[in-house]
Amino acid sequence: MSTLALSTAKEVFDLLRDDLRAIERELGRDAVSDVAAITEIADYLREGGGKRIRPSLLLLAAKAQGYEGQGMVKLGAVVEMVHTATLVHDDIIDAADTRRGRPSANTTWGNAKCVLAGDWLYMQAFHIALEERNFRILDLLISLTQQMVEGELLQMETLGRAICETEYFDLIYRKTACLFQVSMRLGSILAGATDEIEDQLGEYGRSLGMAFQIVDDVLDLTASEDMLGKPVASDLREGKATLSVIHSLENGTEADRGAIEKVLLDQSFDRVDHAEILEILNRNGSVEYAMAAAFRCAEAARQGLAALPDNEFKRALLWVPDFVVARDK
Amino acid sequence: MSTLALSTAKEVFDLLRDDLRAIERELGRDAVSDVAAITEIADYLREGGGKRIRPSLLLLAAKAQGYEGQGMVKLGAVVEMVHTATLVHDDIIDAADTRRGRPSANTTWGNAKCVLAGDWLYMQAFHIALEERNFRILDLLISLTQQMVEGELLQMETLGRAICETEYFDLIYRKTACLFQVSMRLGSILAGATDEIEDQLGEYGRSLGMAFQIVDDVLDLTASEDMLGKPVASDLREGKATLSVIHSLENGTEADRGAIEKVLLDQSFDRVDHAEILEILNRNGSVEYAMAAAFRCAEAARQGLAALPDNEFKRALLWVPDFVVARDK
C-alpha cells in the first residue's frame, strides 16, 4: 500500500472514528447472551477484528446523504453480525482451521456449538434490526441472508471442477457483493433516499463488492501466508476456481488446463505445485485479466455516486474502490 | 390410544382438514429455492410428515376466536418451518442417524449442506412471516428462535451429568413449550385478541408444550423402537437426564444413582443395561412421577382457555391436552 493511500485510509477512518467506536460498543452489547458459550464465541469473533468495511459503507452511505440518527450505529452492527454469522457457518462447512490469523471458532468450540452460535448471531442481528420498525430493512436483510446461504450451497456444488465466469460472478455476488449492496441500501433507507438513489448506491455497493472479492481471490493466489493470515491458495486447496484460474482454464494450453484440473480435483498441490500454477496464471496473463475486471468494477462503483452531493463522505466513497483494488492483504 | 380418543382425533382433524391441506400446499410452495439442494432437502423434510401439531394449535387459537383470514395458513407454515429448521440443526448437533423412522437429513446430505438448509429454512420462515407486515409477529418469532437455540446450547452443556428439575423444565420450555406458546400467541394476534387473552392462550401453549415434552421423554424410555421410529432410550444414550431419570437420581438409592450416572457418563448401556434402568425408574415410581407432572401441566393448559367463548374449536383445544398425555408414540 502506498503512503498516499495510507494517509487517505486514515482520513476516512477519522471521518468515521466516533461512529465505528459506537458500533464496536453496540457489537459488545449485542453479543451478550444468558448462555455463556454464546457470549464467549461472540466475543471471540468480535475481538478477531476484521476491517468493518460493511458497517463503514453503511455509515458513509447514510452520512453522505445527511443522516445523523442512531440507526446507522444499530444497523452497522447488524450487517457486521450477519457477516460474522455467515463466516461461522462457512468455517464449519469448509472445515477451516484458521480465520484472520487465529484458530477458527469451530476449531476451538467444535462444530455443534458453532452451528448454534451462528444461528444465534443471525437472530440477534434481526432482533436489533427489528428495533428500527421498518419492514423494508427486514425484507432486505432476510432476502440477503437467503442469497448468501444459497451461494454457499451453490459453491459446494462447484467444488473440484472448472466453472465458467457466469457461475463465478454469481457466486461472488452472493458471497460478498450482495451484503455490500445491502449495506449501501440500508444507509440510504435511513437517510430517506429516493428509490432511484437507493438503487444507484446499491449498485455502488454491488460493484465494489465484486471488485473486493475478485481482488481477495487474486491475493489468495499471489500473496504470502504472512500477509493473508491463512495458508496461500486456500481456494484451490478447497477445489474452488476463481477468476484468474478460470481465465487460464479457458485460455491456457491443454497442459495448463490439465494441471489446474488436477489441483481442483485433488484439492491439494500433491501432483502439481503452487509455483507451477502461478507460472501458468502469469504466462496466460490471467492475474492481470482478473485485476482488470476488478478495476472495471471499481470504476462502475464510482459511477453509482454521480447523483450524491459533494461532501467529505462522498469523497470517501469515491476513494474506497481504489483502496479495495490497491490493497495487498 | 382408546377408540374414543381416536374418534375425537378424527373430529379435530376434520375441523382443520381444509386449513391443514392449505398449509401443506403453502409448505410445498415455500420449500422451492433456485438451489436444487435446498429444494431437495426441504422436500425430504416436509414429506417426512410429523404431527403438524404446532400449525394445528395456531389454527385452533385463531379459529376459536373467530378469525377467518389467510394469515393462519401462512403463519401455520411458518411455525412448522421454524420447527423443521431447528430439527435439521439439532440432528447435526446430536449426530442423529434417524428422524421420524427415516435416515436424518444429515445422514443423506452431510452436515455442511444441512447447516445451510437449516439456515435457509429459518430465513424462508421469516420471509413468509414478513408478508403479514406485523412487527409483533416478527418479535415473537425472532425471540423464540433465540430461546430455542440457547436451549440447545444449554442442553449440550448438561450432557453426561445429572441435572435438577429446574434445569430440566427450563430446557424443555426452550426446546418445545416456547414454540407451542408462540403458536398460540400468533393465532391470537391474527384474531385481534386482547393482550390478556393472548397471554392466557400463550400459557395454554406453554403448559401443553411442557406436558408434550415430558410425555415424549417418558416414551423415549418406555416405548418400543417400532413405536418411536428411533432407538429406545436415545436421551440416555446422548447423556440426557429427563424428568423420571432426575426423580430416580434424587430419590433412589446410592446404587440407583450410581447406575444412572454411569449410563449418562458413558452415553451407552455398556456397563448398565436398559432393563436395569427401567427397573430403577419403576421401583422408585419415577415414571408415574413424570406422568403426574405431565397431567398437572395438561390441567393447567385447559385452565388457560377459560375466557374463550364456547365453540367447536375451543372444545378441540380442551381435548388436545388429554390427547398429548394419553398418546403412546
UniProtKB/TrEMBL annotation, chains A, B:
Q: Which SUPFAM superfamilies match?
A: Terpenoid synthases (SSF48576)
* Entry GO MF terms: metal ion binding; prenyltransferase activity
InterPro entries registered for this protein in UniProt: Isoprenoid_synthase_dom_sf, Polyprenyl_synt, Polyprenyl_synt_CS
Which Pfam families does the UniProt record give? polyprenyl_synt
Question: Does the keyword Metal-binding belong to this entry?
Answer: yes
User: Which keywords, in A-to-Z order, does the entry hold?
Assistant: Magnesium, Metal-binding, Transferase
| Superkingdom | Bacteria
What does this protein need as cofactor?
Answer: Mg(2+)
**In its UniProt record, which GO terms are filed under biological process?**
isoprenoid biosynthetic process
Family from the record: Belongs to the FPP/GGPP synthase family.
Q: What is this protein called?
A: Octaprenyl diphosphate synthase
